[in-house]
Amino acid sequence: MNDAQSLQQAIDEPVRLAEYDSTWPAHFDAERERLLERFPVALIDVQHIGSTAIPGMPAKPIIDVMAGVASMAAADSLFEPILDHGYVTSREFNAALTDRRWFMRHANGRRTHHLHVVVHNGELWRQRLAFRDALRADPIQATRYAALKCELASRHQVDREAYTRAKGDFVRSVIAQ
Q: What pLDDT sits at residue 14?
């Protein structure tokens, strides 16, 4: 399988949740160090977000990495260097994004990492950390979110975008608290 075929397989993969894996934080730490080593000046901070960052949470086994930069112009200046550093993306998808740049790493036809490059301490930065931190701090909310994720993964097995959209109301309600 060549890189283009592996990328297409990763894009088309179904929504499958895995039980929490205690090695996910170490996978994040390794990627964080790799990114900070390559972009020590441009990246202000790098945080572990998404379900793999919440102990006990079932998740698609993809490490979500959020890298904070000074501005969207700084994010755009990193676009090609990030691609040269083992990530891939859709230029068309990124052209539609105003608040972030999105990349993924994959291996053997499976996504391994998502990289979200956002303005450090901007609205999206604060929202993603608020959601993560709220679920880390509130086991009841985390349990509700886990149940919702499982139900939605079953309902939207072959539509990742629908799965993500369907979680939106819950995510927004947690951030609003």
A: 83
Token duo for residue 13:
């993969």
The answer to whether 149 touches 167, Cβ cutoff 8 Å, is: yes
The reported pLDDT for the residue numbered 4 is 59
At 67 the three-state DSSP class reads strand
Domain ranges of the chain: 3-176
Q: Quick check: pTM over 0.85?
A: yes
Q: Is 41 helix (H, G, I), strand (E, B) or coil?
A: coil
Lookup: tokens for 54: 């919440």
**Other residues' Cβ atoms within 10 Å of the Cβ of residue 137:** 9
The architecture that CATH gives domain 3-176 is 2-Layer Sandwich (3.30)
Q: What is the mean pLDDT of residues 46-68?
A: 97
Give the bridge partners for 68, in sequence order: 45, 118
Among left, alpha and beta (phi > 0; psi -120 to 50; other), residue 50 is left
| Structure letter (DSSP) for residue 172 | H
Residue 172 CA to residue 164 CA, distance in Å, equals 12
